[in-house]
Amino acid sequence: MAVWTRREWLYKAGLGTAACSLIPSLISEEPRAATHTRGNISDQDEIALGNKFAEQLEKEQPIVSNSIIDPYLTKMVQELASKSQRPNMPYHIKLVNTMEVNASSIPGGGLYLNRGLFELVTSEDQLAATLAHEIGHVVGRHAINQLMLSFEAKALLKPVLDNLHKQNGVVEKIILSMGGAVAMLAMLHFSRQDEAQADMLGFYEMLRAGWDPRGFIKMFAMLDKLEKSSGGSHIRFLSDHPPTPERLEAVRREAHVVSIPANARTDSFAFHAAKTALHVLPDPPKPHKPAKKQ
Ligand SMILES: [Zn+2]
Question: Counting CB atoms within 10 angstroms of each CB, which of 36, 43, 87, 202 has the fewest?
Fold first, then answer.
């Protein structure tokens, strides 16, 4: 038998927001993110691993800078992260010059947005929802926990932890021995629970930072459209983030029971200025193809 929470019962009974405004404890069901990382490693250790991971990742991916786009993305990430449940990590974001549609986060608060995803979004709230979701993964300690597991599985956790704060190249070599940073990131598979939690954490980050969290609904619509138009071609962001009815329903339900200010942000001039600046970026470098045999 399905067990409904009191809030679900009120929602299904059509009492939604009005009932909840009478019962303050029902207004918010923001999930509480875990406060400990697997193996109880400290934030400082997570940040050190994130830095080593970022160094390797940025050797493998074409990072691109732009004087309009970079400050715009940085400001958005700072605003969202400052309203998260883990505001004290050194969040930062870089743009990757590839048309592959993707965004990712790494331990310690590093975020990477692919140009292909920025080209795709049409309003600021879609972008804010995407980045809020990625920040949600950092807040929920999803990537660090998965990475710890990967090192453990290969009996490499001890040398990683022993050398995290040393400049001796040991951790870098271990990352390379496991296929490199991009491949390791691609192998991390978040559970559906992790994804649902990242959505909800992101939803509340957006709400507190002054954006309309219904941007998540628009973001799912965008992913849905992409899924239909991709004709089954493999898009990593879609395989990790399929726009499932459950994700959509969870956000819709949450949007019904919170109070969203009438002036919550959905779009901005700065967003469109940054989108325009994408046109002046150099073309993405062509992926390396193995030389043909004569
Ligand atoms: Zn995700």
Answer: 36
